[in-house]
Amino acid sequence: MAVFSQIDFADHEQVVFVSDDASGLKAIIAVHNSNLGPALGGCRMWPYATEDEAIRDVLRLSRGMTYKSAMANLKLGGGKSVIIGNPRTQKTPELLAAFARALEQLNGRYIAAEDSGTSVADMKYMAQFTRHVAGIVDKPTDDGVRSGDPSPATAYGVFVGIKAAVKERLGRDSLQGLRVAVQGVGNVGFDLARQLKEAGAELWVTDIHRESLTAAARELGATVVAPEDIFGLDVDLFAPCALGAILNDVTIPQLKAKIVAGAANNQLAEARHGTELFRRGILYAPDYVINAGGIIDVYHERTGFDRGVLLRHIEGIYDNLMEVFERSRKEERPTGEVADAIAEERFKR
User: Fold this and answer.
1) pLDDT digits (tens, 9 = 90+) for 14-47
2) Element holding 77 (H helix, E strand)
3) Annotated catalytic residue 26
4) Are 54 and 28 in contact (CB under 8 A)?
5) What is the spatial distance between Cα 114 and Cα 125, in angstroms, rounded to a whole number?
6) How far is CA 100 from CA 122, 237, 293, in A?
7) pTM, to two decimals
8) Taking Cα atoms as reference points, which of 64, 50, 66 lies closest to residue 8?
């Protein structure tokens, strides 16, 4: 179980392994880069099949957060954490408290927020034991107050980004009649699907949780398909909103969509898969550019919340993507390579 020789180790500043026998906690915290500020990123809880799988995930996710914050023009570095376990059966108050105490020992080098398998409520509970959690402050909205959950901001940012991708690839401003396959209808994916439906899109959805699919079919009129069928649908746009590495040697040849634009992190199994999408004429919206709404939301929570300023910052994802698309066209390079180059210009010293 080597770390330095991992293919996804990218000059990470710090990788911390955490365990607590009493609670059963086994976790990994990765700080990729802190040149622009403290490393901020979600805490994921997932029943990884192996420890190597967990290590790879946390390394990929933390690197992605560095690039995401840089592209979003935030004074934050990149970090991520994973807790190994099933969040539905193994998450306990004792486990969360043990993880929070481990965070506190890092003295603010890494700040955690909710992610797959954790919630705003979990972060609020952990705040009893550490100062270094985010996404927990209730925020005013036009119709009352919502929790600190950054998921709506992530979904809105992806929706804005889809508009940019549709404009670039299909040459249209309207989403009316757009055929979209959404992989994963959890907090972010469902909210994104709702916005797409309201904009006139037709939806096909899949998820590993039956209750999410039932809600999507009932409330959004979405067509439910099996997980293995979502890639090959005859649609305009494929929106991955579940886990990463789903664009690979097996799935890319199945794609009929002209655009890939979704909320999932680390969608490319390897960088070369971005090149393959480019070769096939499929426009890929780099994940860490299009899904930055959540980290933007958390940043504004920490620096002084103003809803209008926040929305304008999230809507800037449109311009960020159009810059990537334009440079990709001019330089004849995959969009992922272009986005990496822009981000590195901002955070590398």
Assistant:
1) 999 999 999 999 999 999 999 999 999 999 999 9
2) strand 77-84
3) no
4) yes
5) 12
6) 10, 39, 25
7) 0.88
8) 64
